[in-house]
Every structure is written in structure tokens, then in C-alpha cells.
Amino acid sequence: MTWQATVLLAAALLASASVSAQPSGLFGDSRPSFLDVDEAFRFHTSLDASDKVSVHWTIAPAYYLYRDKFSFELIAPDEGNLETTHTMPAGISHHDEFFGNVEVYYQDLSISIDLPVAARSDGYRLQIRYQGCAEAGLCYPPQTRLVEISP
After folding, report:
1. Are 65 and 41 in contact (CB under 8 A)?
2. What's the N-to-C CA distance of the chain in angstroms?
3. Ramachandran region of residue 71, left (φ > 0), alpha (ψ -120 to 50) or beta?
């Protein structure tokens, strides 16, 4: 083997060792991966009675929803909005890097929404707004979902 071939082989081995010592992925292995917002905060609705609908969340481990970021609005077939009242359970005190001292929900959550008389006979859409974060440091933007509700 000539000295040029030896130098080229040594350079190739050094380059290979340098590349393999790099962490894999663009940001390395230490960067956490996060769930899609709909995987982190799964929900479904149930019509409990002619005057009540409930929204049930299943919250992924190490994720949470903010108590004060929820809002609910009924949208009638004529596109008019109907006021609702709802009952929020107490949350867990949490110091959040984005919002300071807040109440949050972990694991699961059910919210009962009282339906006004006008919404008890016609179909309507329930507009749900909420926001949550991952404990690893990702705060999702506020979310809005529309759910069809038929009596």
C-alpha cells in the first residue's frame, strides 16, 4: 500500500468515526418528542339528558390541560350563538413556566354543560375551546373544535 493510499484510508476512517460519534437526528437524542395535540388530549361527548351534554377528556401521561382556558358555546342551525353554563371541577395547583400559578387537569376530566331550552329540540354544534401543555416544555396553541350534537 502506498503512503497516499494509507493517508486516504486514515482520513476516511477519521471522517467515519467523526460522523458516527455525532448524535443521531438533527437535534440529537436528548430532544423530547411530543404527541400530536389530538393524541395528547383525546375527548368525546355524551348527551346525558335532554338538558345536559358532557365532554370527557383522556389526557396522556405527562400532559395537562389548563382549567382557565376552557370555553363552550352552542351554535344553532341558524348560526346564532346560544349561551351555556357549565360546571368545572377543581383543578390541581401548578406553577407553569408560561402562565405562572394556574390550575390544571391530569389524566381525565369530565365537564357537564347545561343546554338552554332552545337547544333541546334542534341539532346544534358545540364549540369547544381549550389549551394544554406537555410537562417536557411544549405548550400547544389554543384549540377550537366543533362537535355536532343531536337531541
Report:
1. yes
2. 85
3. beta
Q: How many other C-beta atoms are found inside a 10 Å radius of the C-beta of residue 49? A: 12
Give burial (CB, 10 Å; 0-12/13-18/19+) of 54.
middle
Dihedral angle at the C-alpha atoms of 6, 9, 10, 15, nearest 10 degrees? 160
Q: What is the pLDDT of residue 60?
A: 98
For residues 64 and 106, is the Cβ–Cβ distance under 8 A? yes
| Residue from 66, 52, 55 nearest 120 by CA | 52
Q: What is the pLDDT of residues 85-131, one digit of tens each?
A: 898 999 999 998 878 999 999 999 999 998 887 666 677 889 999 99
Please state, in angstroms and rounded to a whole number, the distance separating the CA atoms of residues 79 and 64: 32
Length of the chain: 151
Tell me the per-residue pLDDT of 47-67, one tens digit each, with 9 for 90 and over: 888 788 999 999 999 999 999
